[in-house]
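Schema walk-through. Below, the input block comes first and the output block second. Nothing else is stored per chain. Lengths vary across the set, and this one has 298 residues.
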Amino acid sequence: MSEKIGFIGLGRMGLPMSYNLLRAGYDLTVHNRSQEKVRQIADAGAIAASSTAEVMERCDIVLACLPDVETCEAVLLGDDGALPNARPGQIIVDHSTVGASTSKACAAAAEERGAMFLDAPISGGTERATDGTLTIMVGGPDEAYARVQPAFDVMGAVVRHVGPTGSGTAAKLVNQLLVGVHKVAAAEAMLLAAKSGADPALVFELVNSGWGQSFILGRNAPAMLDRDFEGIRTQVRVFLKDLGLIQEMARDLETPIPGGDLAYRLFSEAVEQGLGDMDGAAIVLPMEEEAGFQIRRK
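--- output ---
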């Protein structure tokens, strides 16, 4: 592989994505706030870097996957960040879920340095990050996309160049809007079925084989039936962050999102009730409290 790849952010998604790049034969340099994960993948053949600037110095393409907007802007736009250290011809890719304003600020900062920026958020969870079958939604220059696409194909099964800067971010936020609404719908549907006296496991089986099926129902109904809200996949507070970005996007575009508004309110209340560190399926818990009834297998 001729391109030297850098990866910043070895969290739940970034670490398995990095392993896939390493297994594909890329010259890979990594950096993370927690050095334990850096040492872990360095033992497998990656090059450990002690700073973002060091990654930028070594690599042609630098990917980042970071947990929130504040961290993303600090790592990419801060004084010691990726973009102030970019050089002409370099490509910086952000796999984080952020708002359009952050993606556009990163693109402008890259252009000032003669570099290129791609917003390329991901969907699929840790399972698909591990097996290299993520959905990757990319916005930015055609030239940059063409150069990075081989690396994207290592990490994702569905990779699409959506359009100019911000298009990938817009696609991800639309995805998160649907996920948020579906989480609420799955919770209220399962609770309604269970409290009616029907076997909730059988209702789930039937509905998920009919027109009411959804990926989120298939994912969250077993967690509700088994009371498994600690098996963290996507935390309530993380999803609230995404729903907040969706609120911002809708306001900027002056577009109504009544389902999104409801999801945002319910996730906000769940965080206020101390459920922020639980899995997203825990959005059912405040509904159960109001109903005076818990979903359980019969």
